[in-house]
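Before surveying the methods themselves, let us examine one representative protein, pairing a chain with its fold in token form.
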Amino acid sequence: MKAELFRVALSLLTLIGGIPAVASEIVVNIDSPQFREVVAAIPAFAVNIATADSDTKAVALEANAELHRLLEFTGVFKLMSESAFKDIIQKVPPQIFSESGIGATSTLEWKTIGVESLTLAEVSREGTNTWSLAIRTIDIGRREVLVGKKYTQIARNQLITVIRRYGDDVLKAYTGKSGIFNSKLVFIGKTSERSAKQVYISDFDGSKPIQITKGNYPHLSPSFSADGKFVVYTSYEDGNPDLFMYDIAAHTSRKISGYKGINSGGNFSPSGKVIAFTGSVNGDADIYTALPGGGARKMFISGSGLDVDPSFSPDGKKIAFVSGRFGNPHIFVASLDWSSPTEPRVTGDKRLTYAGWYNATPGWAPEGDRIAFAGYDKEIDRFDLFMMNADGSKLERLTLRTGDNERPWFSPNGQNIVFMSNRTNGTNVKSVHQLFMMNRDGGNQRQLLTGLFEAQTPCWGPNL
């Protein structure tokens, strides 16, 4: 009876007269001191009574569960349990819904129990193996539809992709930022303690990892190109730490730099025409560039002491790196001249960090205004994560007393940071490295479940 009432109400809400105009976005700023999670309700997706077979019911359940998981994952939403609103679903009269949105009586009922965002949907079978999904997300306070979609001809193996697209739209409606649910991670993983380190590509949350390298030798430091089509990484395939590039579509790899010594830590320029990486001659580490097509490497940044960990800014006008020219390694940023599209030239640099014993692996926020990095705190013998403005001001600590935390990388929308940590169950006890994620302010830290024995040095690719 509950499902039928909900189906009738939903039919009036989403199908009669079509999807209404979508309201303007509501920007939820997770950097604000006043930030709190948006309380959201996603009742069980209704099934069109005319096509309510077992497969359609299974599709509705799967779609509902995936949307729940996605919104919880963001750290932006707090999902209310179904038990909190089952009475509303059972008694809500269909006539309170209208073509323009959700009626006043229902708005009040949802608002009374604390719901701020409500998502309703109905699944219908269209063909032998295809379905349609009518779905909308309503801001209860404003009584407006923020996102409304109707998807048709959905094959079963396309269902998760459709829900992730919708989840991206919901996330953008609330934050003003693009989604993350169709992005990928690349990282180094091991299947067992004794297995070789391999490069893996996974979904945005670390699930479904796919191994893209092979051989019983180490692989290190992977990163994506800006368009997500290539991965650059280091491999000991030929007995030396050489730089390789992997073509994701073609499933092929080729060597980019194989000079004796280090060829590691590759990072694509935003244009994809240049790769900056750490190279060495007789043990002296400097930063070089190479072209994706190969050829001779070129000196880029050098000086007394090490120069490593290059990271281009999102607009390509600057590059962050680590230098030991003044003693301990610290974060620097250099300005670049791109008169030649394949030969960037440093026009000046600036030291950004002065605190910390050893600072490393700078990573840019997509807006180019913030840099996250790992810093060694000698007093507690731990690496922790920090964030600062692109000019070195407003230094913030993101982790503390939870093992070693390293290699931060922003999500494509800048709302989250993926990193590696060797913490044990959230404590300061060290174990093997795993992937973790947090909000960009350091909140909501949690492990990503890759299913691997060990996972480290993550990089987040674009949302495709």
About this structure: The helical segments are 2-14, 54-74, 86-91, 104-112, 159-175. The radius of gyration is 25 Å. Confidence is low (pLDDT under 50) at residues 1-24, 93-101.
